[in-house]
Design brief:
Elements (H helix, E strand, L loop, with lengths): L26 E5 L6 H6 L4 E5 L7 E2 L4 E6 L1 H6 L3 H9 L5 E7 L5 H14 L3 E5 L2 H16 L6 H5 L7 H8 L5 H11 L3 H6 L2 H8 L1 H11 L4
Parallel strand pairs: 1-2, 4-5, 5-6
Antiparallel strand pairs: 1-3, 3-4
Length: 224
């Protein structure tokens, strides 16, 4: 696990910090502000972290063009300041942002607003987590998913359903209409967040029915 800063990692970065980043295979490039945090500690030993300063508005780069914007409980309680970061990444043609939000007892009252802004207004993927520990598990899973060779046989992928991943399972359970029964069924058919977020209503219907399929599709995509 590397705590070293690697200045050459940034390649052709734009002035607003939303340019592509060179991320070594199987690594995460983390914003310096997360050094020593519970979130970073949860990932250390399981994945290689490289800390960089000057990454604003991004918190973590999973690959050269895929990044995570992390909204803490404190960010939500403080108001709408987080929205500028989301908009900057959303407006960048070079980055795909995933928004991870701490949904706790204290921040729950603000969650509907951030969900509407992120999913409906910006059309970005939003993943709720209960804690930074849970977030670290989810981020590791996302990185592992990105580094896998895509299987040409979708039936083989079913065997890799990540039902044992508590962070992923809890995230899917929180999608409106899914709950504890349907979440494992969804993960058997769509073993990763990327696959689930890209699924069409027609693909989701056989697993959860038309009504819940529409809820899931709306959760992950911009309202047309």
């Amino acid at each position: 696990m590397s705590g070293a800063r690697s200045r050459p990692l940034m390649e052709g970065n734009t002035p607003d910090g939303t340019g592509p980043m060179h991320v070594p295979f199987g690594h995460i490039v983390a914003n310096e502000k997360w050094r020593g945090s519970q979130l970073a500690q949860g990932m250390q030993g399981k994945i290689k972290l490289v800390f960089e300063d000057g990454l604003t508005p991004v918190d973590f780069y999973l690959s050269s063009r895929s990044c995570i914007l992390y909204i803490t409980e404190a960010d939500l309680v403080a108001g709408n300041g987080y929205r500028k970061r989301l908009v900057r990444v959303r407006n960048s043609s070079k980055l795909q942002g995933i928004v991870v939000v701490e949904k706790t007892q204290m921040s729950e009252q603000y969650f509907a607003a951030v969900q509407k802004f992120t999913v409906l207004d910006l059309g970005m993927v939003l993943l709720p987590v209960a804690s930074q520990t849970e977030a670290s598990c989810l981020i590791i899973q996302l990185v592992q998913e990105q580094t896998k060779e895509p299987s040409k046989n979708p039936f083989l992928r079913k065997k890799r359903a990540l039902i044992s991943e508590p962070a992923l399972l809890r995230t899917v359970q929180q999608i409106p209409g899914v709950g504890k029964v349907k979440a494992p069924l969804l993960l058997q058919r769509f073993p990763s967040i990327q696959q689930l977020s890209n699924a069409s209503i027609q693909e989701l219907e056989p697993v959860v029915g038309q009504s819940v399929a529409q809820h899931i599709h709306a959760f992950f995509t911009r309202a047309r």
